[in-house]
Amino acid sequence: MPQAPKIVKVEELPASEAKWIEFQKISWQDQSGKDRVWEAAARKTRGKSGVDAVAITTIIRHPTRPPSTIIILQYRPPVDAVCVELPAGLVDEKESPSDASVRELHEETGYKGKLAFISPTIVSDPGLSTANMQLAMVEVNLKEGDEEPEQALEDGEFIERVVVPIDELYDRLVKYDQEGKTVDARLWHWAAGWHAAKTML
């Protein structure tokens, strides 16, 4: 049985050793003309598309099952917790975000689908990071009797996929939180918006 992931040590990372991120000192002037300084983290992997990453919302359609979506569970060292997330990944150097969304969905979940929509470039933590992303919606159409596909994970990836009926997603995330897992903000916002549309409008 695999061991549980754990933090062994946390130490400062010299800039010369950083492969994926860098710190930036941003000098700027505010609306009154006052000089100010801002500290930010930036990815070092942004390719020609100008988009760092994609996250993927999935709609699975099946002849006899309710519309469902796919979420993933994986341990994230920065928060020392198993996180509940949308499938997601970095956009390769010469890849478009649209192509990355279909590729990442297949790699992380095994499912192949068709891109239905992709958002403008958006940010999730602009007070801390220059990182940006696009949010894709991919449709997966299944037939009766289709077997669950195999994931195409890379070495070192430990990702558990979970297929959830969309109408049960919000309650499932609440349960995961109660179990001690950490829910990613993008997934929570999507589920909470869906829940609000059903129950509050």
Report on this structure:
The protein is an alpha+beta fold. The chain has one domain: Alpha-Beta Complex (Nucleoside Triphosphate Pyrophosphohydrolase), CATH 3.90.79. Helices cover 19% and strands 33% of the residues. The strands form three sheets. A four-stranded mixed beta sheet has the order 6-3-8-7, covered by helices on one side. A four-stranded mixed beta sheet has the order 9-4-5-10. Strands 1-2 form a two-stranded antiparallel sheet. The radius of gyration is 19 Å and the shape is globular. The relative contact order is 0.18. Pfam families: NUDIX (PF00293). This is Nudix hydrolase domain-containing protein.
As a percent range, the share of strand residues is 25-35%
Mean pLDDT over the full residue set: 95
Number of strands: 10
Largest sheet: 4 strands, mixed
**Could you say which overall geometry the principal axes of the C-alpha atoms support?**
globular
SSE pattern, N- to C-terminal:
EEEEEEHEEEHEH
Pfam family, one: NUDIX
GO molecular function: ADP-ribose diphosphatase activity
Organism: Clathrospora elynae
Protein name: Nudix hydrolase domain-containing protein
